[in-house]
Every structure is written in C-alpha cells, then in structure tokens.
Amino acid sequence: MLYLNDFQDMKNKILANAIKAFNPLRLRVGGSLEDQTVYKVGLVTKCPHFKNNMNVRRFGFSNGCITMERWDQLNQFFNETGAKVTFVLNALRENKSENKNSTLWVGNWNKLNAQEFMKYTISKGYKIDSYELGNELSASGVFARVNAGQYGKDTIILSNLVKKLYANFSDQPKILGPGGFYDKEWFNKFLRVSGPGIVDGLTHHIYNLGAGNDPKLISRVQDPFYLDKIAQTFKSISESIKQYGPWTGAWVGESGGAYHSGGTNVSNTFADGFWYLDQLGMASTFDHKVYCRQVLIGGNYGLLNTTTFAHNPDYYGALLWHRLMGSRVLHDASPYLHSYAHCSKDSERGDITVLLINMSNSTTFVVNTVNDLNLFPSDHTELPPREEYHLTPEGRTFKAK
C-alpha cells in the first residue's frame, strides 16, 4: 500500500527508484477508507475531501472522493515506475447498516459507480492487475462487516462486471477477496457461495504482533515461539483452499506486523526484520502466492521514511527476497535457526538460495554445506562464486534504522 500526500511526492526520484528496483512492485491502492470512497465519474457530481469526524463510527472520517484528475496522476506514476496495481473497490456503496447500532451491512453491492470507474480506466488504457472488493469486512470486520454469503454474491457481481467490461482483453484483471482477517467458517462459506472460477486470490490480513504501542512488541519480534504461532493461520488458509477453493491461491493482502501504524523504534528498525523475513518464508512454505506489506510509505511500519523516502531496513530485506528467492520452496524452519530454502529466482543452473535467521541472542550457529564447489571456485570450474548477503544493524544496535 502507498500513501502519497500530493503530486510532488510522485516526482520524487528516491521514491520512484525504490519502486523501480523491484521491477515490478505490486502497489495495493486502497485500505481503511476504501469503503467510504466515491469515484467522481459518470453521474457523481459532488466530490468531498475526507474530513476528521469523530461522530462517524468508521475510523473517525467522513466519506470522501477521488477525482479522475487524481487517478490520472497516479496512473502516470504507476506507468513511470512499472508498478503492478491492485485496486480495492468500495464494497459498501449504498449498502445499509442493519440498524443504527449494528456493524452488519446488508443488501446487494451497487456496482454502478465502480462500473463507471472501470470504464474510465479502460478508456485511458490504464492497466489494473487485480480488483479487490472492500477492506476488512470478513467475520466480525473492522467497524463494518458483511455476511459471507452476501459477500460471495457480491464477488460474483464483480467478476461478471470485469468479464463484461474486459471481454476484449486477453489478460483480464484478477478478482481478489475478501481482504480481511481469517475466520474458518466465514472464509469457507465465502468460497462455497462464490464457487469455481470467481476468486483468483484469497486475500487475508495479518497483524500478529499486536498493537504498535505495546511495550512487549520489541520482545515479540525476537521470540521464535511467538512468531511461530501464526503458522496455524497460514495452514488453515491452505486447508480452506484445498477443501473449498482449489481454483484459487492464498495471498497475504496486507500485513504490517503491529496494527495502529506499527511500533515506534521497532517497526522501522533492523529488529523488525526478524518478524518480516520470517513471515515471507512462512507464507511461502504454506503456498502463498503474494505478500503485501503495510505499507510502502506511512506510519512506523513504512518501508520508506515518511518524509525523506530514505529506505528503512525492511526495504532491503524485501528487495533481496524479491530478487533472490524463487517460487519453489525446498525447506522450512527449526526453533532458533529459522531457515528457508528456495530454488533461486531466474536461475537455469538449478541454483539454491537459503535464508538463515538467527533468533537466538546468545548462540552462534555454524552452518556448513556439503560439497560446495563454488565457495572458492578454481580456474578449472565454470561455476560463479557463492554470493552471501549479511544483514546486520549499524553499530550492532538492534533498533538501528
């Protein structure tokens, strides 16, 4: 996800180069306020800005709007940086809360505003990799929720709309959902109702470290047994797909570790890499196809500094993972030495890339490889030297940035 304050942000070379380095980087456009967003296109004439309003139950903001001028600017930025775009649509457009004190929203999704938005997007030649319906509406939801059966029906409406509008495209946008926290009963029913060939990516969110202001946060990112607890969620998602949706794939649609903007002097430091890299390895072990980090810019958990766009430590971890680790997973972890081995990305020689994370603050592990011919290649071998990347905090300070 990406927060940009004004058009000048999109002219920043540090920001642009940070995105280009991934070639491509997926940007998820949406989030907490997505289900309060209207698109100023077609019959929509009023386009208010989001305003702080503590009388509003959903996140303390009034409803807001995105103009097509702003959408044009964003797509110019996406095109220049080669970003791959996932766009989250308002799932609560004209739906109604069950009653004044209820968080349950009822009624079929009104597709009209989204339809006009898609038509405009197509007319301008803007490429969307995937559309997702709503944000954090599954199970008990976050300030709002939709029943699994209703959400399944709404996702079918979205799928049919995309198939109709993109009928002449050989590469149609994928359909994602539900973009919320995993609940076995809710997710299973959603897959049953939506049925085969509708959902391309089953997206779920993870904030397994607790609140950003929790003083225990710094100890949690170093505790291998605490970090391993979330493995059950990854496993359960995989089981839901195997039983009810073998046509789809699991995605982590959003994860920042600690919610409420992450932890000060934790989420944006070297320490967070113990959680983040372990998450990437764990997600791959349980056959997840995509992992979206919250957030590129914004809060304490941004990969880039909010004001200077300087790279925080997790940016480098993400970049190395993206460049080195292939999609084939060979091995996973042990208690204090977490190890993840993949076939190397874009390798034709059968190379292997291994990620080793020492979760102990008192033990040094010695790792040897058997018959490693390319550690010190001689003049008689065509093998390149082995590459090693050592991630250490500046000044050996655990909270270094």
Automatic annotation (TrEMBL):
Signal peptide: none
Keywords for the protein's UniProt record, in alphabetical order: Glycoprotein, Hydrolase, Lysosome, Membrane, Secreted, Signal
InterPro entries the record matches: GH, Glyco_hydro_79
Primary residence: membrane
Membrane topology term: Peripheral membrane protein
GO cellular component: a single term: lysosomal membrane
Function: Endoglycosidase which is a cell surface and extracellular matrix-degrading enzyme. Cleaves heparan sulfate proteoglycans (HSPGs) into heparan sulfate side chains and core proteoglycans.
Protein name in UniProt: Uncharacterized protein
